[in-house]
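Q: What does the assembled structure look like for these inputs?
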Amino acid sequence: MTVSHYSVRLNAAIQAKRTPALVGLDPRLDWLPPDVMAHARELHSDPAAVAAAAFEEFCVRLIDVVAPLVPAVKPQAAFFEELGPDGCLALARVMRYARNSGLIVICDGKRGDIGTTAEAYARAYLAGADPQAAPWHADALTVNPYLGRDTLEPFVKVATERGAGIYVLVKTSNPGSASFQDRQADGQSIYRHVAQVVEELSEQTAVDGFGCVGAVVGATYPQELAELRSAMPHVPLLVPGYGSQGGAAADVGAAFTATGLGALVNNSRGINFAYRSAPYAEQFGAKQWEAAAEAATRRMIADLAEHTSAGVL
Amino acid sequence: MTVSHYSVRLNAAIQAKRTPALVGLDPRLDWLPPDVMAHARELHSDPAAVAAAAFEEFCVRLIDVVAPLVPAVKPQAAFFEELGPDGCLALARVMRYARNSGLIVICDGKRGDIGTTAEAYARAYLAGADPQAAPWHADALTVNPYLGRDTLEPFVKVATERGAGIYVLVKTSNPGSASFQDRQADGQSIYRHVAQVVEELSEQTAVDGFGCVGAVVGATYPQELAELRSAMPHVPLLVPGYGSQGGAAADVGAAFTATGLGALVNNSRGINFAYRSAPYAEQFGAKQWEAAAEAATRRMIADLAEHTSAGVL
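A:
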C-alpha cells in the first residue's frame, strides 16, 4: 500500500491555503467565552464534564473559523489532560473534527520514551494519511529528544509507514531553553547535536526535498532559527513563539525557503483569545469571539505574507 | 493547610514494606493472560473497549497481588494512551485503585512543556497527598528536562503545594541514552548539568534529607548511578532497567543510602508477564499468572535485600 508522505501532504495544504500559519488550539477554562460555558452547563453538571464539553465546543467552532484560512492546527494535549479522561475524549473528538475539516493536525504532546514504549506513543498518535489508523487521529506529534536517537527511531518508523510526521524539540521558545539546549559540547551546542540527528533522519525519509521528521524551533530565537534552517535543509520546521510570546513576522523569515515552504508558524493565544485583547476586545467583544479569532488569523496571514517569503505562496 | 511531603510518605511506605521494589504496570495486549481477555470480551465488542477493560482488570488484579508486598507502582501511560480515550479512562481508574490500595503511584508519562502548559500537566497528574486533588490521582510523575530549568519549576511548585513528587529524566536506561545525555559540556556531561539542577530544586524542598524532586537513573549504567547518587544527595532516585533490560541487584546497590532509602528500583515486564518466562512459565502457566507475578515480586524483593543496603530496612 502506498501512503501519502507527510511533507507532501503538508506542503500541498500550505500551497492550497497560501499561508504557513498554524493555529494552536489551547483551550483555557478561565478564558472561554460565556456562551460556550453556558452551553456546556446546560448539558452537564459534573465540573470535568462541563469543562470538557466547553473545550470541545470552543475548539470545534474555532476550527470552523480557521479551516478555510490555514493549512493546519495544533491542539495542546496538556490542557485537555488537565480535565482527566473527559478531556482526553474531547481531545480525540476535536482532532477528528479537524481532520474531517480538511486540516493537518499536529498533536502537541511532546512525548518520548524508550523502545517499544516509544512505539506505543507513535501508534497512539500518528494516524498519518489514514485518519482512522490511530485513536488520536493526528497527522503529526511533537517529540522530546532527551532520551536519545534510538528513542526517536520508533517514531520515525511508524511515521514512515503511515504517512505521518513528528516534530522533534530542537531549540524551544522559552527563556530557559538555554539551560541544557545551549550547552557547548564537542564544538557545538546540544541543540545542534539534536539538529544533526533530526536532519539525518529526515533526509532518509525525504520526498520532494522534505522528510517526515520535523523540528520545533522558537520564533523567540531568530538567529538560531536562521542557523538551524541552514543546518537542517530537509527538515520541516514548527515555529512557536509568534505573537503572545513576543516573536514577530520579521523574526521568522529565516525559517522559510525562497518558495515560502519549510515551516509552519504557530499562534495559539493570540488567535484563540483574540476577543480578550487589543485591538479586538474593543471591536468585537465576547459575543463575537469567532469574528475576533478570524480577524486575528487574517492579520497573522497578512503579516507573514508581507514580511516573509510566504508572500510568494 | 499542611500536606504530607512526598518523600516523607514515600520513605514511610518503603520502611513499612521493608523494600524499595517498584512494580511497573505495563499492560501489553498481546501478552495478557487468556482469562483476562475472555472477561473483557464478555463485556464489550468494540476492540478499544475490550482492550481497555482487559488492561484495567489485569492491572487491578496485579495491584491486588503486589499491594501487600511493595510500596509503590508505576503505570506506563503510553500503553494506555495507545488505546485512545478508553485507555485513558482505564489509566485513571487503575491509578485510583492503586491509591485506594495504599500504594504510592508514580505515573510514567515523561511529560514536559513550557510555562503555564507545564503547570497544566502538573495539575493534571500531581494529586499528591490528596488523591482527589488531580484527575489522574498520581503521587508523582516522570518529567523530561530538555526544555530547561524554567520548565521544571511549575512542576516543583505544584508538587510542593500538594505533597507530590516528580522524577526528572537524568540518565536513562536505553542503549542510546548517550546521544545527548553523555555529551561533555563545560567540563561535565549534560546529565550532570541536569543532575545539578535537580539537586538544587530538591534540596530547596527537602524534609528529613530528601526533596520532592527525584531523578530517573538507569540500572544499566551502574557507574553513573554511583556518581549520580553522590552528586544528588537530596534526590530520591527511580531506577529502571532491573530485570528485562539487564540490570542486576548488584548494579543498583549504589543507588541506596546506608539505611536502604533513597531509591526505588523498578521491574515491569519481569513481574507483569512472569508467567510467560522461565522459571515461572513451567511452574505456573497462564492460569496462575497472578501466582507467577507474586513469585517474581518476592524474588526481586529478596534479591534486593541480599545484594543492597535495602536488606537493613
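Chain A has a mean pLDDT of 96.
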